[in-house]
UniProtKB/TrEMBL annotation, chain A:
Keywords: Periplasm, Signal, Transport. One of its GO terms (cellular component) is outer membrane-bounded periplasmic space. It comes from the Bacteria. The keyword Signal applies. GO terms for molecular function: thiamine binding; thiamine pyrophosphate binding. Belongs to the bacterial solute-binding protein 1 family. This is Thiamine-binding periplasmic protein. GO terms for biological process: thiamine transport.
From TrEMBL, chain B:
This is Thiamine/thiamine pyrophosphate ABC transporter permease ThiP. It is a multi-pass membrane protein. The keyword Transmembrane helix applies. One of its GO terms (cellular component) is plasma membrane. It is found in: Cell membrane. Keywords: Cell membrane, Membrane, Transmembrane, Transmembrane helix, Transport. The keyword Transmembrane applies. Residues 46-246, 317-503 form the ABC transmembrane type-1 domain. Its main location: membrane. InterPro entries: MetI-like (IPR000515), MetI-like_sf (IPR035906). The chain crosses the membrane at residues 49-68, 80-105, 125-148, 183-206, 232-257, 278-300, 320-341, 348-375, 381-399, 440-462, 482-503. It comes from Fertoeibacter niger.
Length: 337, 513
């Protein structure tokens, strides 16, 4: 072996170990609430820091976020850990995943009461919604003046779209369910019609949205709230979502408490806090979704310009899970050509 | 003896990290969970995976030969910089490279704009050809470097002899170049084939639809969406089998060239004149353009956001550099031990060294998570685990780079060293390190840059505050911040390339490259 190199390697490793140990030492006297969430929740530009600061003011505790990939990765990680986990609360599963999450038996009833400002009534014993959005195709108004007003019009047009793969991304799965909910047995026909419009299928939301912004497609599957980001954060009013006559499918993001938590009271307090004004007011301009309970100050300026679908679709989670494989097969057969 | 014990220890670690993690995932799945048979969709994925990987490897290697030959026999201003540039595509984070390629070949890219301007119909990059194009962009430059090393490993005395014998270019090709290619190309092709076998995001994004499903995507789906661990383990086994087949085939086709040792004299390269000059010039110009254009686009996309990068980028960049340095030292040290052991005849170490290439990083990460989780909080180990995994995943590349020259070293100097009783530290100091300086520098550069870019595994372990630069890029993209993401990606590319160039140029300094 090359000894100086080895020594250098060992000292670098030691450095890394000390860095990770340094993160280990929390304030000893305070209880710690560990919240497993998706990657985009925790950075400076996400909702995480503001929510952490506001909650810690009230709880005399240490709120620790653990970022664990995307929504689907969170659930997979919980299943890997089983009951032997440090995690107290999971934040960021969505309605595509709640059936599987409930089936694990790892979650405890949330015990929260009160209503939510969702387009559809909410009932789930284990999960509390914290924000939501409608899926929609987003386009650039300056390049596409009259967007299609339905899936059928989109399929008949020669517009190019980018979508996400339902096998690796929750928006992709949402689109699959959207078509299934709106068209039922005709869904396969819609997909066959859309096949020549689809430029490509990306692994996740960010690749698809990136491709759209680069001009690779006329429209991209995203949310009705996406134009609000461009308007508010970039003062760019060129993006818009197309209103579809069939109605739009919902994505509701939820938070849940683990049955095995050693901080049940803190976890309950956090769930309640998350649907309070303090937390809900943060979400629209950090997560770019609608808050589950409209804060008393109302929605931020700019959200008023967004489209409001009249019909909202959401297949009940157990049913959605049951028809997923069939819908996937249909989708794959129609697009594989 | 110490070398052999070291090689055994490293082999044991590699086996644990590849088959051990796979076994752990399979064991956690338990008996009876899921099915143990592949469905028609899986077989379609296997077929597509094999086809795109084979085509990508074939084109990468075939296109690399004329470029490497031109670079080996021509001297021109900027040649060193061009060779360094060839390292760049291989080291780009996948999504950055894809966006760079699309800026050139996409619907709104340079190529289609030019075609539109000339009144020609646009061409679409999406489909099998797009996947192969992207893989060639990533891997052709790597193949050029591997083949170029082969050319440079032919002792200058052989070329002088050829000149003295008045060999025509055809004779040189027959007696010197073809035997060298026969020794080098199968190995290069198999490395690229196996890399492409693991492709997931590139294949899906440019493939244009679910027809472009690879086995790795099926593993992702099984692990993330279906939580079907037995299926994931089974698919990972299929990947191992495919890789084993490829490695076996390459071993059948590769023949050692047997040039013997030279005297390290720097000789004027054997450079055929006439039309061959123009062919070489064209090969170099085309390759440089093909590699540089998407890189320029990555740069142009990134510059506007550089001014307002979020501050978290800087500590993340520092963390990534430390991880890269630690991984590259570990990786190259281990690869050197294995390459020397193989050069002395223990060939099975070579198979072990290639194992990580065939490992699904998703399964590896999941297995490690299962191994660590009962004892420690996974987040507390995020950085050491990342170093270990990056070092492991980069090891096959370091090994491939070092092996041919380690074999040449053993064949040319092994007996002399033994006769002089040159052993241990002294052998390393006076024989191995000086003679392997160039490939060691290249290997350190490649593994360092690979470790900067890779994030396949960290996601499972990432905590709240240990984000690396690739993770930040991903987080920025996930929050609509494409301009900042492009700038952070440019920073990532710049740092990777700086690390690569530093080591690579360090290795080439004082050696005719």
């Amino acid at each position: 072996m090359n000894y100086p190199m080895l020594a250098a390697g060992i000292s670098v490793l030691a450095l890394l170990a000390t860095e990770s140990l340094a993160q280990e030492t929390p304030a000893q006297e305070k209880p710690v609430l560990t919240v497993l969430t998706y990657d985009s929740f925790v950075p400076d530009w996400g909702p995480g820091p503001a929510i952490k600061a506001a909650f810690e003011e009230t709880c005399a505790c240490d709120l620790r976020f653990v970022a664990g990939g995307d929504g689907a990765a969170l659930l997979a990680r919980l299943q890997l850990e089983g009951a032997n986990t440090d995690v107290d609360v999971v934040l960021g599963l969505d309605t595509n995943l709640t059936a599987a999450a409930n089936a694990t038996g790892l979650f405890a009833p949330h015990g929260q009461t009160g209503s939510f400002d969702l387009p559809l009534p909410w009932q789930d014993a284990n999960f509390v919604p914290f924000d939501w959005g409608w899926f929609a195709f987003v386009h650039d108004k300056t390049k596409l003046a009259t967007p299609p007003a339905s899936f059928e019009e989109l399929a008949a047009s020669d517009l190019k779209i980018v979508i996400q793969d339902p096998r690796s991304s929750t928006p992709g799965l949402g689109l699959l369910m959207w078509v299934k909910a709106a068209y039922g047995p005709e869904a396969a026909g819609i997909w066959e019609g859309l096949a020549d419009n689809i430029v490509t299928v990306s692994p996740g939301w960010s690749e698809a949205y990136g491709l759209f912004l680069e001009g690779e497609a006329d429209m991209v599957l995203s949310y009705t709230t996406s134009p609000a980001y461009h308007l508010i954060a970039e003062s760019d009013d060129t993006k818009a979502a197309a209103l579809f006559a069939e109605g739009h499918y919902l994505q509701i993001e939820v938070v849940g408490k683990l049955a095995a938590t050693d901080q049940p009271a803190l976890a309950d307090a956090f769930l309640a806090f998350l649907t309070s004004d303090a937390a809900q007011a943060v979400l629209p301009t950090t997560n770019w979704m609608y808050p589950a309970k409209t804060p008393s100050a109302g929605l931020p300026e700019g959200f008023g310009t967004l489209i409001t679908p009249e019909t909202s679709w959401l297949i009940p989670d157990a049913e959605a899970q049951a028809i997923r494989q069939e819908a996937l097969d249909e989708w794959q057969a129609a697009l594989a050509r | 003896m110490a070398g052999r014990i070291g090689a055994l220890a490293i082999a044991a670690i590699l086996l644990a990290l590849t088959f051990g993690t796979l076994a752990l995932v399979g064991w956690r799945a338990g008996a009876g969970a899921g099915g143990f048979a592949l469905g028609p969709a899986d077989w379609a994925a296997v077929r597509f995976t094999l086809m795109q990987a084979a085509l990508s490897a074939l084109f990468s290697v075939a296109l690399a030969v004329p470029v490497a030959r031109a670079l080996a026999r021509r001297r021109f201003a900027g040649r060193g910089a061009l060779i360094a540039l060839l390292g760049a595509p291989f080291l780009l984070p996948v999504i950055v490279a894809v966006l760079g390629l699309l800026a050139v070949f996409g619907r709104a890219g340079v190529l289609n704009s030019a075609l539109g301007w000339a009144g020609l119909p646009p061409v679409s990059i999406y489909g099998l050809h797009g996947v192969v194009l992207a893989h060639v962009f990533f891997n052709m430059p790597l193949a050029v470097r591997l083949v170029l090393h082969g050319w440079q490993a032919i002792p200058a005395e052989r070329f002088r002899l050829a000149a003295a014998l008045d060999f025509a270019p055809g004779d040189v090709a027959r007696h010197l170049e073809r035997p060298m290619l026969r020794a080098v190309l199968p190995g290069a092709a198999v490395v690229i084939f196996v890399i492409c076998l693991m492709s997931f995001a590139v294949a899906l994004t440019l493939g244009g639809g679910p027809g472009a499903t690879t086995v790795e995507l099926a593993i992702y789906q099984a692990l993330r969406f279906d939580f079907d661990l037995s299926r994931a383990a089974l698919l990972a086994l299929v990947q191992f089998a495919l890789c084993a087949l490829a490695v076996g085939l390459a071993a059948v086709f590769a023949l050692p060239a047997g040039f013997g040792a030279g005297l390290d004299r720097a000789a004027a390269p054997f450079a055929a004149g006439g039309w061959r000059r123009w062919v070489d010039g064209l090969a170099i110009a085309l390759a440089a353009g093909f590699v540089a254009l998407p890189l320029v686009m990555v740069g142009l996309r990134g510059v506007p956001g550089l001014a307002d990068l979020p501050p978290v980028v800087w500590p993340a960049a520092g963390r990534s550099v430390v991880i890269a340095l630690a991984s590259c030292l570990l990786s190259v040290g281990a690869a050197l031990v294995l390459a020397l052991a193989v050069a002395r005849g223990a060939r099975w170490f070579g198979l072990v060294a290639m194992l990580p290439l065939a490992a699904s990083s998703l399964v590896l990460g999941t297995g490690l998570f299962l191994a660590v989780h009962p004892f420690l909080r996974p987040e507390s180990l995020a950085l050491p685990v990342t170093v270990l995994v990056n070092a492991t995943l980069a090891l096959p590349f370091a090994y491939r780079i070092l092996l041919p020259e380690a074999q040449g070293l053993e064949a040319g100097f092994g007996r002399l060293a033994a006769a002089l009783d040159l052993r241990g530290w002294a052998r390393l100091r006076w024989l191995v390190l000086p003679r392997l300086r160039r490939p060691l520098g290249f290997a350190l550069g490649v593994t360092a840059a690979l470790s900067m870019g890779d994030l396949g595994v960290i996601v499972l372990f990432a905590g709240d505050s240990a984000a690396t630069l690739p993770l930040i890029v991903q987080q920025l993209m996930g929050a609509y911040r494409m301009t900042e993401a492009a700038a952070a990606a440019l920073l990532l590319v710049g740092l990777s390339f700086a690390l690569f160039a530093l080591f690579d140029l360090g290795g080439r300094r004082g050696v005719a490259a």
